[in-house]
Design a protein that fits this description.
The protein has 217 residues and is of the alpha+beta class. It contains seven helices and eleven strands. The longest helix is centred in the middle third of the chain and has 28 residues.
Length: 217
Amino acid sequence: MTLAYPLDDHRGARPEAAITELMDRVGVRMTFARNEEIYAQDDQVEFLYRVVSGSVRTIRLTSDGRRQVGDFYYPGDLLGLETGPDHRFSAEALSDCVVLVVKRATVRATAGDAALDRAILEATHRELERTQAHLLLLGRKTAQEKVAAFLLAQAESSDAGAVELAMGRQDMADYLGLTIETVSRMLTQLQSQAIVEFPSTRRFKVCKWERLEELAD
Protein backbone atom coordinates (compact mmCIF):
# COMPACT_ATOMS: atom_id res chain seq x y z
CA MET A 1 0.00 0.00 0.00
CA THR A 2 1.39 3.38 -0.94
CA LEU A 3 0.99 5.93 1.81
CA ALA A 4 0.50 9.64 1.39
CA TYR A 5 -0.72 12.47 3.57
CA PRO A 6 -0.86 16.26 3.41
CA LEU A 7 2.08 18.06 4.94
CA ASP A 8 0.48 21.46 5.44
CA ASP A 9 -0.14 20.92 9.15
CA HIS A 10 3.11 21.94 10.84
CA ARG A 11 2.19 21.49 14.51
CA GLY A 12 5.36 20.51 16.31
CA ALA A 13 3.84 17.41 17.85
CA ARG A 14 3.27 15.74 14.50
CA PRO A 15 5.61 12.74 14.17
CA GLU A 16 6.25 13.25 10.42
CA ALA A 17 7.75 16.71 11.04
CA ALA A 18 11.23 15.26 11.55
CA ILE A 19 11.00 13.36 8.25
CA THR A 20 9.67 16.41 6.40
CA GLU A 21 12.45 18.65 7.69
CA LEU A 22 15.06 16.00 6.89
CA MET A 23 13.83 15.68 3.31
CA ASP A 24 14.03 19.44 2.90
CA ARG A 25 17.66 19.36 4.03
CA VAL A 26 19.09 16.28 2.34
CA GLY A 27 16.52 15.21 -0.25
CA VAL A 28 17.41 15.22 -3.95
CA ARG A 29 15.08 16.93 -6.40
CA MET A 30 14.27 14.78 -9.40
CA THR A 31 12.20 15.73 -12.43
CA PHE A 32 9.87 13.30 -14.17
CA ALA A 33 8.14 13.77 -17.51
CA ARG A 34 4.46 12.99 -17.95
CA ASN A 35 3.81 9.21 -17.73
CA GLU A 36 7.38 8.51 -16.61
CA GLU A 37 7.73 5.84 -13.92
CA ILE A 38 8.96 6.98 -10.51
CA TYR A 39 9.07 3.51 -8.98
CA ALA A 40 7.73 0.15 -10.11
CA GLN A 41 5.19 -2.25 -8.69
CA ASP A 42 6.91 -4.95 -6.58
CA ASP A 43 10.19 -2.99 -6.45
CA GLN A 44 11.96 -3.10 -3.11
CA VAL A 45 11.25 -0.09 -0.94
CA GLU A 46 14.40 2.00 -0.81
CA PHE A 47 13.39 5.67 -1.03
CA LEU A 48 10.76 8.06 0.30
CA TYR A 49 9.22 10.58 -2.06
CA ARG A 50 7.48 13.93 -1.66
CA VAL A 51 5.73 15.71 -4.51
CA VAL A 52 7.07 19.25 -4.94
CA SER A 53 5.21 20.23 -8.11
CA GLY A 54 2.95 18.51 -10.58
CA SER A 55 1.00 15.37 -9.76
CA VAL A 56 1.52 11.61 -9.42
CA ARG A 57 -0.73 8.58 -9.77
CA THR A 58 -0.24 5.14 -8.28
CA ILE A 59 -1.34 2.14 -10.33
CA ARG A 60 -1.39 -1.63 -10.06
CA LEU A 61 -1.56 -3.99 -13.02
CA THR A 62 -3.44 -7.23 -12.48
CA SER A 63 -2.29 -10.57 -13.86
CA ASP A 64 -4.69 -10.25 -16.80
CA GLY A 65 -3.35 -6.80 -17.72
CA ARG A 66 -6.09 -4.62 -16.25
CA ARG A 67 -5.05 -1.36 -14.62
CA GLN A 68 -6.32 -0.02 -11.30
CA VAL A 69 -5.45 3.52 -10.28
CA GLY A 70 -4.85 3.59 -6.53
CA ASP A 71 -4.84 7.32 -5.90
CA PHE A 72 -3.60 10.71 -7.00
CA TYR A 73 -0.93 12.74 -5.20
CA TYR A 74 -0.26 16.46 -5.32
CA PRO A 75 2.34 18.97 -4.04
CA GLY A 76 3.05 18.32 -0.37
CA ASP A 77 2.00 14.65 -0.45
CA LEU A 78 4.45 12.02 0.76
CA LEU A 79 4.54 8.59 -0.86
CA GLY A 80 6.66 5.49 -0.64
CA LEU A 81 6.08 4.94 3.11
CA GLU A 82 5.25 1.26 2.72
CA THR A 83 4.45 -1.03 5.62
CA GLY A 84 6.10 -3.95 3.81
CA PRO A 85 9.41 -4.41 2.00
CA ASP A 86 8.01 -3.95 -1.53
CA HIS A 87 5.86 -1.42 -3.36
CA ARG A 88 2.33 -2.73 -3.86
CA PHE A 89 1.65 -0.10 -6.51
CA SER A 90 3.87 1.62 -9.05
CA ALA A 91 4.03 5.42 -9.16
CA GLU A 92 3.97 7.46 -12.37
CA ALA A 93 4.11 11.15 -13.13
CA LEU A 94 0.60 12.20 -14.04
CA SER A 95 2.05 15.45 -15.37
CA ASP A 96 5.55 16.86 -15.59
CA CYS A 97 6.56 16.95 -11.95
CA VAL A 98 9.34 17.50 -9.45
CA VAL A 99 9.74 14.98 -6.64
CA LEU A 100 11.97 15.21 -3.59
CA VAL A 101 13.69 11.86 -2.99
CA VAL A 102 15.63 10.60 0.03
CA LYS A 103 16.86 7.14 0.99
CA ARG A 104 14.72 5.44 3.60
CA ALA A 105 17.91 4.39 5.41
CA THR A 106 18.97 8.04 5.67
CA VAL A 107 15.63 8.96 7.18
CA ARG A 108 15.83 6.11 9.66
CA ALA A 109 19.42 6.92 10.65
CA THR A 110 18.76 10.63 11.10
CA ALA A 111 15.18 10.78 12.36
CA GLY A 112 15.50 7.57 14.37
CA ASP A 113 13.49 4.36 14.19
CA ALA A 114 10.86 5.61 16.63
CA ALA A 115 10.18 8.77 14.62
CA LEU A 116 9.85 6.83 11.37
CA ASP A 117 7.66 4.19 12.96
CA ARG A 118 5.32 6.85 14.37
CA ALA A 119 5.12 8.49 10.94
CA ILE A 120 4.34 5.16 9.29
CA LEU A 121 1.65 4.40 11.88
CA GLU A 122 -0.04 7.77 11.40
CA ALA A 123 0.28 7.59 7.62
CA THR A 124 -1.13 4.06 7.66
CA HIS A 125 -4.17 5.26 9.60
CA ARG A 126 -4.80 8.05 7.12
CA GLU A 127 -4.26 5.79 4.13
CA LEU A 128 -6.66 3.20 5.53
CA GLU A 129 -9.33 5.88 5.73
CA ARG A 130 -8.68 6.80 2.11
CA THR A 131 -8.72 3.14 1.09
CA GLN A 132 -12.01 2.52 2.88
CA ALA A 133 -13.56 5.52 1.15
CA HIS A 134 -12.25 4.27 -2.20
CA LEU A 135 -13.65 0.78 -1.59
CA LEU A 136 -17.04 2.25 -0.77
CA LEU A 137 -16.85 4.31 -3.93
CA LEU A 138 -16.01 1.24 -6.02
CA GLY A 139 -18.50 -1.16 -4.52
CA ARG A 140 -21.57 0.67 -3.22
CA LYS A 141 -22.27 3.55 -5.58
CA THR A 142 -23.86 3.86 -9.01
CA ALA A 143 -21.79 5.10 -11.93
CA GLN A 144 -23.25 8.60 -11.65
CA GLU A 145 -22.65 8.68 -7.89
CA LYS A 146 -19.03 7.60 -8.40
CA VAL A 147 -18.35 10.37 -10.90
CA ALA A 148 -20.17 12.93 -8.75
CA ALA A 149 -18.15 11.93 -5.68
CA PHE A 150 -14.91 12.19 -7.64
CA LEU A 151 -15.74 15.67 -8.97
CA LEU A 152 -16.85 16.82 -5.52
CA ALA A 153 -13.54 15.71 -3.97
CA GLN A 154 -11.61 17.54 -6.66
CA ALA A 155 -13.68 20.70 -6.22
CA GLU A 156 -13.39 20.67 -2.43
CA SER A 157 -9.59 20.49 -2.66
CA SER A 158 -9.42 23.52 -4.95
CA ASP A 159 -9.59 27.14 -3.86
CA ALA A 160 -10.43 28.35 -7.36
CA GLY A 161 -13.91 28.74 -8.79
CA ALA A 162 -13.00 26.54 -11.75
CA VAL A 163 -11.18 23.26 -11.13
CA GLU A 164 -8.33 22.02 -13.32
CA LEU A 165 -8.21 18.24 -13.49
CA ALA A 166 -4.72 16.78 -13.58
CA MET A 167 -6.00 13.46 -14.89
CA GLY A 168 -7.77 12.49 -18.09
CA ARG A 169 -10.92 10.41 -18.60
CA GLN A 170 -9.03 7.09 -18.68
CA ASP A 171 -7.37 7.76 -15.33
CA MET A 172 -10.75 8.68 -13.86
CA ALA A 173 -12.24 5.47 -15.24
CA ASP A 174 -9.43 3.30 -13.87
CA TYR A 175 -9.76 4.96 -10.46
CA LEU A 176 -13.54 4.58 -10.33
CA GLY A 177 -13.70 1.06 -11.77
CA LEU A 178 -15.67 2.19 -14.81
CA THR A 179 -15.11 2.24 -18.56
CA ILE A 180 -14.06 5.48 -20.20
CA GLU A 181 -17.34 5.45 -22.15
CA THR A 182 -19.33 5.28 -18.91
CA VAL A 183 -17.35 8.15 -17.37
CA SER A 184 -17.94 10.31 -20.44
CA ARG A 185 -21.66 9.47 -20.39
CA MET A 186 -21.98 10.33 -16.70
CA LEU A 187 -20.18 13.65 -17.20
CA THR A 188 -22.57 14.45 -20.03
CA GLN A 189 -25.54 13.65 -17.77
CA LEU A 190 -24.23 15.87 -14.98
CA GLN A 191 -23.74 18.70 -17.45
CA SER A 192 -27.19 18.25 -18.97
CA GLN A 193 -28.65 18.56 -15.46
CA ALA A 194 -26.64 21.78 -15.00
CA ILE A 195 -24.92 20.30 -11.93
CA VAL A 196 -21.46 20.92 -13.35
CA GLU A 197 -20.14 22.75 -16.38
CA PHE A 198 -17.09 21.79 -18.43
CA PRO A 199 -15.76 24.77 -20.44
CA SER A 200 -12.96 22.44 -21.60
CA THR A 201 -12.06 18.76 -21.27
CA ARG A 202 -10.10 19.12 -18.03
CA ARG A 203 -11.66 22.25 -16.57
CA PHE A 204 -14.98 22.32 -14.74
CA LYS A 205 -16.96 24.31 -12.23
CA VAL A 206 -19.74 23.25 -9.90
CA CYS A 207 -23.06 24.91 -10.61
CA LYS A 208 -25.26 23.10 -8.08
CA TRP A 209 -23.23 22.21 -4.97
CA GLU A 210 -26.11 20.76 -2.97
CA ARG A 211 -27.19 18.47 -5.80
CA LEU A 212 -23.61 17.27 -6.37
CA GLU A 213 -23.24 16.60 -2.64
CA GLU A 214 -26.50 14.63 -2.64
CA LEU A 215 -25.26 12.41 -5.44
CA ALA A 216 -21.86 11.98 -3.83
CA ASP A 217 -23.40 10.94 -0.49
